[in-house]
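User: I'm curious what two different proteins look like when written out as structure tokens. Can you demonstrate?

Assistant: Sure. I'll show them one after the other, since each token string lines up with its own sequence. Here's the first protein:
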Amino acid sequence: MNMTDTPTTPAAPQLSATQWNALGRMADRYAQAEELGSFAVKNLGGEMTQAVLTLTELVQDPKLLPAVRELLATLVTLYEVGALRQLRDNAILAAEGLRDTDLNATMTQMLKLPDKIGAVIDQATQGSSDKGLGGFGGLMHMLRDKEVQHGIQTLARMAGALNQPAAKDAH
């Protein structure tokens, strides 16, 4: 080729329509293979690989199969006696009730409750150190106290509520 000659592009190969169609299908399959490879590299690496390895270790544990059998047997029993539905219904009610509740604050208050009860009992026993209030007269004197009356009413309501049959709770 001389430097003065103009470059020429090679002519397109002479293919039949069937061959061009086959070449197009082959290019489509190549694009699909590229997409599949890209998906595999993107989604099956990193976190997914670690999850598969963790699951593989779990499946190899000889205690897994007996535990799964026992779990499934328990689920069947709970289903047969209707307890599974009750558990689900109670979980839904609890979730609705707890939706706007700060569980950390509630648990903190519950953990402090025994200390509060102990302090109230200590305070009540210190207040009853009057030796002059013994006998029936002392009892009558204490019953005139509004705080004592309120305390007795509260205890009576609690005892009554605890003594109610389950049928009343359902209504």
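Here's a second, unrelated protein for contrast:
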Amino acid sequence: MNTIIKKFISYFSMGATLIFICSSIFIAVSFGTNFHISLRYVWGVLLTALLSTIVYIPLFASGKELSKYQMFAARLFYYVYVNAIVITTGWFLGWFDFSNNKTIFAVAILVLVIYAAEESLCYIQDQQTAQKLNNQIKKRRHTEASN
């Protein structure tokens, strides 16, 4: 249980940070650096990160082994799910103009960038964990061989 809480906090923090960074760049490019945002924006980002993390944990961080097909399907589902969350939250909070197709396309690209960054960071974390485990196994084998 403790591991799931750590993963939840890690993924939530990573998601919220990436959303803040990428959306800040998007807002600066689209509306200029003098554009002011409200507290609703902050709550919207936190809600988006929370809802994304709630689904991410059972899909990818449960420890259950998935086949290549299942992993592809899970990643595709998660990407569509995150897009739906962003578009729904954006609609409720008035983040973008739905009559402008370029804005919707830009938001979809932004979600893709955030998704790719998050997946890359998770991959790096998993690689580091695997490397630590391999090092521990090597140490244990070396210790056993010495005795």
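A detail about the second structure: The first helix runs from residue 2 to 31.
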